[in-house]
Q: What sequence folds into this?
């Protein structure tokens, strides 16, 4: 009998889990505020999850797919469009947080440095942050800049779960190679949650699974 794979793909949710996820994201979803300093964070009165990823990995598009709103989070082909920590409220249950893209961004160096510093302060200092979802483009695998954010999450003792985006853009044979590379990367990080979520915002793959995971976090 072969040993189970490290960091397996998350199983689809069962019926109760799927319904909990559907109900959470089918309810009221509102943009709360964009935050440019730690002093501007909303009250720490509920669990929150955040979405992190290098610029243009598809964070905003994934958030729109999860919530079923086409323009809740601003999606752009211009890397670095998100320059604030953007808070969304899932009814009065959870905060969903869209973080600034890290790595290359089409913005002045001083602006990039400022929001990268804010990102680090947030990850290290937000007590109600229950899980970070680190988005990796399935076409490219984990990059050095992704490992930087993973190391930061390790040091902050924030559990993070890898979400592969744009899974529809890669052949099945190539996908296995990328998964092996990502698994080897995650194995180096103690804060990594031991399941990977494979998603396609365009096709809807993995969306129900990710909704159920968020609904189960308290």
A:
């Amino acid at each position: 009998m072969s040993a189970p794979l490290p960091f397996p793909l998350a199983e689809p949710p069962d019926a109760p889990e799927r319904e909990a996820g559907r109900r959470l994201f089918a309810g009221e979803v509102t943009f709360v505020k964009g935050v440019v300093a730690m002093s501007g964070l909303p009250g720490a009165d509920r669990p929150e999850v955040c979405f992190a990823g290098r610029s243009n990995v598809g964070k905003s598009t994934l958030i729109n797919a999860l919530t079923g709103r086409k323009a809740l989070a601003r999606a752009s082909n211009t890397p670095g469009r998100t320059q604030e920590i953007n808070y969304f409220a899932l009814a009065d249950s959870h905060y969903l947080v869209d973080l600034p893209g890290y790595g290359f961004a089409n913005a002045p160096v001083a602006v990039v440095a400022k929001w990268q510093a804010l990102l680090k302060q947030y990850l290290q200092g937000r007590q109600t942050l229950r899980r970070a979802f680190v988005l990796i483009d399935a076409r490219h695998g984990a990059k050095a800049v992704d490992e930087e954010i993973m190391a930061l999450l390790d040091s902050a003792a924030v559990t993070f779960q890898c979400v592969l985006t744009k899974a529809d853009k890669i052949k099945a044979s190539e996908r296995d190679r990328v998964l092996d590379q990502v698994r080897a990367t995650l194995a180096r990080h103690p804060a990594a949650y031991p399941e990977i979520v494979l998603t396609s915002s365009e096709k809807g793959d993995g969306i129900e699974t990710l909704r159920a995971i968020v609904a189960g976090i308290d």
About this structure: DSSP finds six helices and seven strands in the chain. The CA atoms of residues 47 and 94 lie 5 Å apart. The first helix runs from residue 15 to 26. The two ends are 36 Å apart (CA to CA).
